[in-house]
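@channel anyone free to eyeball this complex?
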Amino acid sequence: MSRFFIIAGAGLVILILLSLMLGDLPYSPAQVLDALFQHGDAARHLILWQIRLPRTLLAIMVGAGLGASGAALQGYLRNPLADPGIVGISASAGLGAVMALYFGLTAISIWVLPAAAMVGAGLAAAILMILARGRASITSVILGGVALSSLSVALTALLMNLSPNPWALSEIAYWLMGSVTDRSFAELAFAAPLIFGGIAVLMLSAPALNALGLGEEAAHSMGVSLNRTGQLVVFGTLLCVGAGVAVAGAIGFIGLVAPHLVRPFFGARPGALILPSALIGGILLLAADILARALSGPGIPLYLGVTTALLGAPFFLYLVIKNRRAFP
Amino acid sequence: MSMLSLKNVTGGPDHNLILNNISLDFGPGLTGLIGPNGAGKTTLLKTMMGLILPDAGTVSLGNKPLNTLSLRQRAQQIAYLPQNGPVHWAMRVHDLVRLGRFSSTATQEEDEKAVQDAMQACAIEEFAARTINTLSGGERSRVLLARALAAQTPILLVDEPTNALDPAQQHRIMGILQTRAKAGVCVICAIHDLPLAARYGDRLVFLDNGGVKEDGPPGAVLTAASFHKTYGLAFDKRGYLKDEPTPI
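replying in thread with the prediction:
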């Protein structure tokens, strides 16, 4: 366990340094440290503080929110294939943002798009909470989520279909691919409190998620409120994923893969996986962003959603093959 | 001494009225719930646990109606071991048994002591660090039972804990329950195996068609007449089951 935190912590520090070094103008580690802590070179200081640092921190934050909600959702739905995408919150947040883009509302203020994404995520979360109420089976939450997700994807496709010109279409398409390029501390200040809050809410559900591992009836007999657990998980996911999609677009696979990476170190109890999954989620998204920048050609940016899927999907397949006997 | 009582309870899952006006009192000791499939044994256990709310009548713990207790208060009084309970994750045995302390308000040390005691009672200490998916059926059953024992509740509801186990494992499980019952715990155990029920039960409640048909010590409940009436089976002179079910 402590070995995990040492390795992951060291990995995160190295990736942060790498992320700050990379860019149109590559810096040496010494130049990065100099610009971070001293006002040596004004331009370098500006680039680091205004462009590279917010982007780096935002990638970590968004990844952490995705990782934590993936772990909590897998525990709640008792399904190792669950992630924020499966319950429809990502897609609904994406639909909200695409509506803002389609109707040109983003010209009013830079906050319209994140707000629209949060509203979309909030609507999906409200429907999921209604589904999770009473003594509803958890399967109904999964099925409801799949339906919500499909509907949101369909409506997003409809808006792209109806988009007035190729420029608007490409704006939507690029946004959907996800990115943390050119984000500032303003976006970080918007997303970070929501994501921290979301992770805290998810942590409240941790003991109940462990007990749910023995099935709904046993958990309920042990004193778990299925209602409250469902609401905590959905609300925490809304905060983490809604805020993530609002500032970085739709990014898949992090929530799915992160819990699988930490399970060997922390045992299989879902509640114990939330924080380590947040850490690994942050690392994965930062690594994906670094890869996206490293592979981008001049004028051809590679989007974050593309690299996370390119990294995540084969890796996930590898995990499934390796652990195919370990799933009980 | 009544620890758990049902008064005129009628109800079942989704308002399917499986239980029909059942009144029972349970005190310390091991009570076997017997009866054919569909008699209402599991429904009765779930109703006593509060997982199924009765449509009429009341379930009381001591002198308090069950539905006036919080989830935590209830869990501190009653532990429930479902039949064929799932384990969704490859949890370590110790972590799984520790889940039994979910509603505990005791200190960490007391919780750990309860976990150790439960693992010892079920003889599973040696695989405390192993994961549940590496155990045999018998070992797994004892681990799940240990989870319920770890709660150290005065009442223990167990649904067919000996299913799919070999005879030695069946006796082991029943022996653990009997030890608890002798220590003053109210153990209520749904069970199909009648010889096992007769051997370990202090009292048997014979359910059929949602009602109590017989209630008393095993010798009084398990008669050839009640057996024939409920299961439609009879014995020959040697004490073997007759080949063909006889019409009731």
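from a first look: The longest strand of chain B covers residues 4-11.
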